[in-house]
Amino acid sequence: MTQPTHLIGVDIGGTNLRVALANVKGEIVARVATTTTNVREPRSVIEKIRECAQRLLEDARLSLEHVAAIGAGAPGLTDAENGVVIATSYLMGWRDVPLKAMLEDALGVPASVDNDVNLAALGESRFGAGRGLKDFVFISIGTGVGAGIILNGELFQGPAWTAGEIGYMLVPGTSEVPPALGEPGGLEGLVGGEGLRSRWQSQWSREKTQLPRELTATQIFDAAVAGDDLAIGILDLAARTLAYAIFDITLILNTPLFVLGGSVGLHAALRDRTQAVLEMHARRLRPKLVLSALGGDAQLMGAIRLAQIVPHVSEEP
Amino acid sequence: MTQPTHLIGVDIGGTNLRVALANVKGEIVARVATTTTNVREPRSVIEKIRECAQRLLEDARLSLEHVAAIGAGAPGLTDAENGVVIATSYLMGWRDVPLKAMLEDALGVPASVDNDVNLAALGESRFGAGRGLKDFVFISIGTGVGAGIILNGELFQGPAWTAGEIGYMLVPGTSEVPPALGEPGGLEGLVGGEGLRSRWQSQWSREKTQLPRELTATQIFDAAVAGDDLAIGILDLAARTLAYAIFDITLILNTPLFVLGGSVGLHAALRDRTQAVLEMHARRLRPKLVLSALGGDAQLMGAIRLAQIVPHVSEEP
After folding, report:
1. What is the pLDDT at residue A76?
2. What is the interface pTM, i.e. ipTM, of the complex?
């Protein structure tokens, strides 16, 4: 019988599907990315994953027999225990998809699944900025805002699988009006990419800035660093709001480190200004903010980590 | 050799010391209370505890040989692992007091210690409103505000022993100016007994209310229930602020139940109005608020529970 020597990690995104082949130490040996545009149906996504995995294995002169386990994540609420994606964002539109069972059926190897932010936290925990730390919080800031919580070296998913859904947090400055379904939550409205863009647009005028009315969140932060007053105001508000949320999380959890990731969260100017606000409020605890070490690979590395710790895998390090 | 059949629980407060003798099931068989006014020095408090324990045992025709363990709590920051009270409020003024070791020296039985709010959470978890629940948060609202967090059936103390120090939380409405040392924190300023009293006084005028300028927090809440407009405004603000904090904690931890205790927290009107605000903001999760079942005994029952689970006690249920 062939001894499993490899793992497969899968990052299912709203626009991209990424599959990696790794050795049992978690080192990626080959990877492939493909689009998920027009591929929404769970069965079609599973078929794409199978194709990608097969291609990676064939190129490496391996077969599915060499694969010990597969780890996968999708954006949305996931019951990790039963391996069911309960709900994803409107991009995917999944409801109660038994992702773990479907992967195991399609590939014939043990599978484990979780949501993308939790996977990113797991990736940073094992291979990135949280390596060697027992307690930290990964905060993903992209279009939306979410957190993956590592307590005592393990992912804390919460009794309802939604621990860390911090995009809806209420802190000074956030709207007190409950957001409608599909609208950004309190914290997201001031810190998330979509909220930042619309704030720039609503405050924009030719008198206030020479920059165009259409900017992405990272372009706004770049403009703030370059000295644009309108952009500085928006960056400062985002930093203050994020600092308040991190301060509150520290009071509740005592986590000494926060790893910032996601396309918006990786901007150094946001980290620097948020840390400066935190210093003013910190009391006994002074949470430290660092940027994600894995960047856009955090989820994929977390998926590989998940495959490493799938029950009954003999090589669990 | 005598088989230990009893436990001792100790609640060290800023003004009162309470000691209880319980059987190994945690049922109190006798109790005694004494003042701690003018007794500040740790050694004197330990001596008072020893006297109280001796008296309880003698009355029950027992001796220290019958005591399996002692559990004790003091208000303040406690390193439960090493049994050291790191700091208490100005009332006690303790710094780095090795309470566990001092109790074991004085009484000759295994001891375990934690802070008062954590003990109350433990008490509610085992004997009170959280019985049978794996995940809930106990919120103590007296002069100040703090939380004891039960996750997966166990006390979550946090890596720095200050998990649940929610009195400093920042939510919409709280001051964004960091409080000076000894001043109430953000949440405390609007929800804690001291903050409520001073808000009543600063807003009070003969035109606004017929009630006196000196009222306690619970008197203000009573006045709100009786229809006093000024009191209603203060209660509503406290309820809204508390609801926001609970909402944020739910997003982070997913805890479905919050047990409200402490002299102010036990007021039903605060619970009812806070629950009503929460209903408007709740999304997937709808945290339920209930009043403490143990009331003023929560800490003492928690101390007894702590004695039950002291390592090496044979009767751990």
Report:
1. 85
2. 0.94
